[in-house]
Design goal:
0% of the residues lie in helices and 53% in strands. By secondary structure, the chain is mainly β. Strand 4 and strand 5 (45-50) form a beta hairpin.
Amino acid sequence: VQLVESGGGLVQPGGSLRLSCAASGFAFRLYDMSWYRQAPGKERELVAVITSFGGVTNYADSVKGRFTISRDNAKNTVTLQMYSLRPEDTAKYYCSTSVASRIAWGQGTQVTVSS
């Protein structure tokens, strides 16, 4: 299982970013996919999850209405579109899935929201 995130960067408050995760090494279309984030000194937290065929999505209360998770099963990618970013969204964002009862993580991509 390999997960590679991209799209992070520095953005001003109120701005937008689009994170992508390229997956390989497993039958992507059969597995739920998640985005997590971890800020310095804090525990990793679940941001959003999307079911295998994209029919169901769930979000942390802190990002509802601002973030959208989606997936393209033909391209083996999962995306997190982030709008109205706030300084408290600053964190390293990780793509994740569980395959054969083993949790896989990408290397993460840094998102910094600051003026």
